[in-house]
Design a protein that fits this description.
The protein is of the alpha/beta class and 195 residues long. The protein contains 6 helices and 7 strands; from the N terminus they run H-H-E-H-E-E-E-H-E-H-H-E-E.
């Protein structure tokens, strides 16, 4: 029985990898998509000059930004469209590969927080390196989300559940719900230094 579960888990993981690779490849960088429009607006409103894009996929968010000092995308898939202005690091969102004292103005999870093995761990990791964290995702009523639930073998929680399970030392500054939800989280740690 244990072998069967391991086999099914491996098949699910491979199907998820293939599915996400396809989605990332056909999902263009464009502010016409609500989640990118919201993210770009939040980056401008919050003066995000040093940006960490967690679960970045191809790095589409960085392609639509107009004004930033540093953009680093982090993802487990290696499909990032590289260029001179943006950096990419292959890594899990549950264990970010930055040295202590390295800070970003804002970390963004755009359509990515639910891919985490533990969103509390991922948010705790983002908190180590960010003044603000912006969560933007489509609501779980989308067929895309139900399909991912099947592939991952679990049912996703609602965005309101994220707010209930936030790591200590952060507070929610703003929430927006609907087809696309957005949660702006502020890190209460004020000991930031320039990188």
């Amino acid at each position: 029985m244990k072998r069967v579960r391991l086999f099914l888990s491996d098949v699910r993981r491979k199907l998820l990898y293939i599915y996400l690779s396809l989605i990332y490849r056909i999902y263009p960088a464009s502010p016409k998509f609500e989640e990118y429009r919201i993210a770009k607006n939040e980056a401008e409103l919050n003066n995000c000059r040093k940006i960490l894009d967690i679960g970045c996929g191809k790095g589409n968010f960085g392609k639509i930004l107009d004004n930033f000092e540093m953009y680093i995308g982090v993802d487990v898939l290696n499909i990032f469209d590289k260029d001179d202005k943006r950096e990419y690091i292959r890594s899990s969102m549950d264990s970010l590969p930055f040295r202590e004292g390295f800070f970003f103005d804002c970390s963004f999870f755009i359509n990515s927080i639910f891919y985490s093995n533990s969103w509390k761990n991922s948010l705790t990791e983002a908190k180590k390196y960010s003044k603000k964290i912006v969560l933007i995702d489509i609501d779980k009523t989308y067929p895309h989300i139900f399909f991912l639930d099947l592939l991952e073998g679990r049912i996703r929680k609602r965005p309101s559940d994220i707010v209930k399970e936030l790591p200590q030392g952060v507070k929610v500054v703003m929430q927006k719900s609907g087809e696309t939800f957005m949660i702006l989280i502020e890190n209460l740690n004020t000991d930031y230094r320039d990188n």
